[in-house]
Amino acid sequence: MTAGVDLGVPATQAISSDEDVVRVRQLVRTTAVAARLSLVDQTKLVTAASELARNTLIYGGGGSAEVTTVEDGRRRGVRIVFADQGPGIPNLDEAFTDGFTTGGGLGLGLSGARRLVDDFDIWTAVGEGTRITVTKWSR
Amino acid sequence: MERVPILKIGDILLVSIQVDMSDQTAVQLQEDLAERIVATGCHGVIIDITALDIVDSFVGRMLSTIASISKVLDAETVVVGMRPAVAITLVELGLSLNGIRTALNVERGMELIAASRADEWDEADVDEDAETTATP
Ligand SMILES: Nc1ncnc2c1ncn2[C@@H]1O[C@H](COP(=O)(O)OP(=O)(O)O)[C@@H](O)[C@H]1O
Ligand SMILES: [Mg+2]
């Protein structure tokens, strides 16, 4: 679950092409630098965002990423919400297994992204779509 | 779509990735490199990722694929310049980069390729060498 208060207006990037995945990475990087995440934490968050943005594009049929700076009283963080209205994920246990893929990938996107962030929350419904919220906090 | 340039330096192809590649650009690079290896007969490929601030599973797979393709085409691939934060992240992501040789920088990469070519020659010429050394 993601706690914390929003600082500032969220920035939204539509995800409907390859180039948009690049834009999501850049937006997340800029926001993570401004939130003063460490270099390693920035790298982890941008990598997780790249994986999730690609999933939104390829499996979700496109969608969006909403990036917000948050604060929980002690520390700052960056929260990203990936949303699509695609087919949803029928079996989450399977989807989070390292190496599981229905698209010829490496099957590390979901499981790897969850390891790389501090908070990870997923909502999905077959036929309705998928919504993944991740947060990385400054230390 | 942007395209990553491939330079030929002696017997080596050098790819220095300077842009945040889209997936399409990465796939294109794979194809371009295979063609250049065949066209030039080069036996070494150095991929310099000093400028890359992340390597995700897509780029990781591209690097592995390039290494496999070049092996089949009798060329050796070395990835150089990986940033420490990228290495830390790769491990946590779960990417093993199996079969990829790495070196600190371009210079070390070139040494590695030269050394492994030399080893191969030694093995191939082992009989001949024995004869030469035996002759006073
Ligand atoms: N947004 C999404 N909508 C529908 N299915 C998804 C979504 N994200 C992931 N999946 C499913 O989960 C699987 C695992 O995803 P991931 O771990 O990123 O591996 P990969 O992308 O290599 O297939 C995908 O192959 C796909 O079946
Ligand atoms: Mg994926």
Condensed summary:
By secondary structure, chain A is α+β, with helices and mostly antiparallel strands.
Structural description of this entry:
Chain A has a single domain, classed as Histidine kinase-like ATPase, C-terminal domain (Heat Shock Protein 90, 2-Layer Sandwich), CATH 3.30.565. Chain A is 35% helix and 32% strand. Chain A has helices at residues 18-34, 39-58, 92-95, 109-116, and strands at 5-15, 63-71, 76-84, 119-125, 129-137. Chain A is globular, with a radius of gyration of 14 Å. The two termini of chain A are 18 Å apart. The model of chain A has no long low-confidence stretch (mean pLDDT 95). The termini of chain B are far apart. Chain B is built from five helices and five strands; from the N terminus they run ββαβαβαβαα. The longest helix of chain B is centred in the last third of the chain and has 19 residues, at 106-124. Chain B has one domain: Transcription Regulator spoIIAA (2-Layer Sandwich). Helices cover 53% and strands 16% of the residues of chain B. Chain B is of the alpha/beta class and 136 residues long. In chain B, strands 1-2-3-4-5 form a five-stranded mixed beta sheet, with helices on both faces. Residues 130-136 of chain B have low confidence and may be disordered. The chains are: A alpha+beta (139), B alpha/beta (136). Bound molecules: adenosine-5'-diphosphate (ADP) and magnesium ion.
